[in-house]
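Backbone-to-sequence.
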């Protein structure tokens, strides 16, 4: 099945259909903030921005920039053909648990070693995620964790008709 026609790219925007496969994973100085239960659980200007064809970017936060004591291992794993085995994390704040709110690659595949231990948060599972102050919208679908901002256009993988893109 062919993928859909990419949306129009306006000034200052980029199309997810121009992203590479295998995905890129580059450090960025953008300000990434994640909040759960009224608490900032991640705050960094050292994130790694991962971009893959048809997906909004995902921002991985270095473990040192995640608040102490908010992460607890979650059950389950998954496999990325590029990055390797994913480990899932619950976020626990003030006794409330957000199940599988994030994931990491503890032993990433060659070429993605700089992702080791960094946490990617699902924007749809946390209370608020921002990039440079802009509130992020979640990528469609339960599995995907892309961060949609005004700078990226789709259509985005994750919706009900996108399984074979």
């Amino acid at each position: 099945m062919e993928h859909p026609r990419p949306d129009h790219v306006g000034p200052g925007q980029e199309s997810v259909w121009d992203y590479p496969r295998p995905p890129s994973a580059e450090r960025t100085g953008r300000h990434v903030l994640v909040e759960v239960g009224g608490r900032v659980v991640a705050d960094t200007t050292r994130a790694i921005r991962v971009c893959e064809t048809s997906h909004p970017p995902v921002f991985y936060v270095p473990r040192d920039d995640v608040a102490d004591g908010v992460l607890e291992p979650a059950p389950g794993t998954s496999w990325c053909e590029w990055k390797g085995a994913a480990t899932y994390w619950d976020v626990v704040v003030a006794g409330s648990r957000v199940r599988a709110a994030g994931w990491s690659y503890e032993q990433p595949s060659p070429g993605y070693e700089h992702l080791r231990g960094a946490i990617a948060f699902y924007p749809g599972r946390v209370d608020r995620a921002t990039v440079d102050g802009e509130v992020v919208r979640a990528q469609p679908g339960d599995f995907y964790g892309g961060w949609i901002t005004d700078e990226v256009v789709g259509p985005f993988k994750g919706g009900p008709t996108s399984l074979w893109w």
